[in-house]
Each structure stands twice: as C-alpha cells, then as structure tokens.
Design goal:
Elements: H1 2-23, H2 41-53, E1 78-80, E2 91-98, E3 102-113, H3 125-134, E4 139-146, E5 149-150, E6 158-160, E7 164-167, E8 182-194, E9 200-210, E10 220-231
Parallel strand pairs: 1-3, 2-10
Antiparallel strand pairs: 3-8, 4-5, 4-9, 6-8, 7-8, 9-10
Length: 232
Amino acid sequence: MKLRTVFVFLLMMSFALLASAQYAPNPMVFQPDENIYGLSYGDWTATWWQYLMQYTNDVNPYNDTTGARCNQDQGGPVFFLVGSPTGKDLTTRYCTVPEGKALLIPLINAECSTIEGGTFHIANGAQGHACAASWLEGVDKLSVTIDGMKVTGLSNYRFQSPFYYFNVPPENNFTGTVGPTEGWSVSDGYWLMVKPLRPGVHVIHVYAHQMPFELQPSGAFQNFTYVLTVSR
C-alpha cells in the first residue's frame, strides 16, 4: 500500500513539473521582476548605455553591421547585443559568445541626457524619466524569436533605467554632442535578458516598429538578426 502511495505521489509530481515547464512564460528569458546577477533589468539597461556611449562612432558596436565588433569590452556575466542603425532594412551580425553568458537585447529604446540639446535635454532625473518615456510613444509591433521560438508577452518587458552617469568621447560620439565628455541620462525601452544558451549555433531575430508621432514624425524601426556561436 505504501509503495502504491509513493508511486502515485511521484506520478503527480511528474505531471506538475511537466505542466509548469510547458506553460512557464518564456523559460529561456529572465522574467521582468527577476534579480539578474545582483541587478534589476532597469539597472542593466543603464550599464548597457554606459557601454555603448563610451565609443567614437567609427568603432561603436552599434554601427558595426557584420558583428566584427561583437566582443569589444564584453566583460562580466552579461553579453551586450545592440540594435541596428539601418532601420527597417535587416542587419545580420555573426558573433562568438563565451559559454555561460546571459544576453541583454534592446528591442527598441530611447534616452535623454544632461548634455544633449533640444527635445533630448534634461536637467535632472525626474525630467529624464518623463523625457525618455515620451520617446517611446506609438510602439505597436514587437517580435523576438530565439532559434525559431517566439517570445511572448513582450509588452511586459518595458523598463526605465535609473538616473545614471556616463562618459562620451568629446566628439564623433553617439549623442552627437561636441565638447562635454560626461553627463547624466535616463533611458526607456523594451529589453530582453536571455539566459545563457547551450554551446552551439543560435539565431535571434528582433523586429520592432514605432508609429509616427510628434517627436518622431517618420516613426522608427528595428530589424536585426544575430547568428551566435556559443563556444565552450
């Protein structure tokens, strides 16, 4: 009798685990409220922007459309992927990623800072949060596939950064400014943090569309693919 009871219990546990695995939302992706290596999604987005802004435009990974600069300054547990400068035209990058690295992917985003001018200029964090949010109006399409599997619930992956400090080169930089080499910024956008992938080749595709609105009369697109070789 005891053996039967144990067998039934184990069978029920197996079904429960199978069901939870089947219906867990995006098991390959960290959930929006997870602590990821000691930081929140919002904190990681600030780190991503600090990474991106440090370069002159000629060596910025964002402007690299082949993947040649993928491994530039990729320390720590998270490997930063970047968006595309080509808008709706597909950009495909080929990169090698060390085993055990999570992947931070920007789907579509914006930032405002204390050194930029016009509608991107802010004086403090409160202004930064409002400014960055205003640039995310009208995002109506988001799509991400990982090895052909569609990631669902992408509207839940919108995050604002804290008010963060950054450095830029004095000219020829991402912000388009000339002179200042440091500032403070806030970003807003849709992001995914993918859990470390197993060794082998993986394909990630991102597509995003933002409808035209007052600040962005022509709208905006992101359309890029990463072909990643995860190496041991």
